[in-house]
């Protein structure tokens, strides 16, 4: 099956008619559409969805009303009450038939609001065989024919959204993995049969047959009434059990999302802890600086006199040294001593003293240098004291300088730490508070655990009721055997039970085989796409895709995946589903899976931005498998990434999306070699 052509008319970013012809060559089976970001690559993927299923894919956080299918430039030039249409056509080759799908919506621009009002919708599907006359398929059969060719529940695999599949938990994808696989293998039919036989309460086939059995007497009626009551009670517990399971699944998905967020942001969380540490360090350094200032001011206040006296002391000592008074006085002698000797008229040496004698002249000369007429001795004492003060003042200066230097160093440290704090804060701007995330995780785990306990309680009550009903039915069976009509319906009930048990047993066995086969295939495809032999991927019992790494004692789950690992893992799963789909369809058509006569028919694969987050090596590893897993590959991607795919030899058709810088509409241009 292959896409031959896509036509878009006034569809979203594309004004007027834009057409893509896809390569249907068996060897050159790749069609590539190259374009910059935001120019219209995803619009083409939306055109596929609209053409096939009459809808577009809604992004997270948006609603259907946020999208306008009619091209904006067309809308701008529409007059009041003017009508314009948007349509998509897809031509599909399937075996010897060519199918043409057409979906169209017309709009009117109404006054005075100028809002677009949908005028009509129309859709059609026609086919031709061997280029013969085209035949219309009735409108009421159109959707089922398309579903048969390209099942909508598998569209997430062949209409590949790179952004959607880049996320670690594959949001919106894993929910239908189990359902898709069961449809491909026929397990869904077995599920429906089991539900019909014994999974609809009183409306189940077995219960309806039981209702045909009638008894007689008070004992029979009492047992029958008890069974009906217990059946109703068991249905109630089953509903509660399903509610428990849905809630458990919901909370587990929420917990898994938080776990993945925390794992993917381990470095950010470490930065956030470092940020808080820097904040505390800044506060501590600021306190040290404030304490240093207080110590400096306190010390200086206590010793300021010594520091401020230093200039006066230096000046005083200089003046004193300049005076001619040093070493001319006699220690401990005063003027009164000289006056006593003069009055006595005789020196202690025995010389006579008179105002005409030489001794008198010398004594009077000395008298001028003695206190109170001279302060030589006092100045000597002052100099000693002054030198002590000088040393104290210098000590104050040195200590003040030391304290100031400590403050300066603390200020430099604070400035450096604060700059780190600000820079880290800028990097963390907009990130979540991980403390709140972990608290939310704990709250969710508590809620989940409460439902797990509730699930156990309800499962226990259901099993008790089953055992009780089984005992009651045996009692009824004994009473019913007395009646021929009852024996007939009892036989049918037993056949129904045996059929249910047989289907359930086969279902369980088949599901286990399918599950193992899928895991084997996924592993094989992963090895082809990603060079990591020490790792493997698998589906768990809930169809979550996990990556495991080789540890000392076996394999452990790897939760902190790189973007390349996530995409390789997801591509491996897509490949597996595509292969599996082709093989099962071939088996359903009567061709055995081990037949070498026919190659399996595969769905085409349409890839929108598949490599946007991969490095060159991983792009090459994954891209080389694409032409092998599908008969047709259609890729919309950036030109800078294309060179790394190394798929030029497989390209049969190549387009470029052109768009003026200020223009709203885009245009498709075919490459000319």
Task: Please give a quick description of this structure.
The chain has 673 residues and is of the alpha/beta class.
Give the strand content: 15-25%
Radius of gyration: 49 Å
Helical content, roughly? 55-70%
Provide a count of the helices: 19
Report on the biggest sheet.
Answer: 6 strands, antiparallel
Q: Could you state the oligomeric state of the chains shown? A: single chain
Q: Separation of termini?
A: 28 Å
pLDDT averaged over residues? 81
User: What is the 3D shape?
Assistant: elongated
Main sheet strand line-up: 2-1-4-5-6-7
Number-wise, the strands total 15
Structural class: alpha/beta
* Regions with little confidence, pLDDT below 50 for 5+ residues: 166-175, 591-600
Task: From the structure above, extract its key features.
6-stranded mixed sheet; 673 residues; 6-stranded antiparallel sheet; alpha/beta; 57% helix
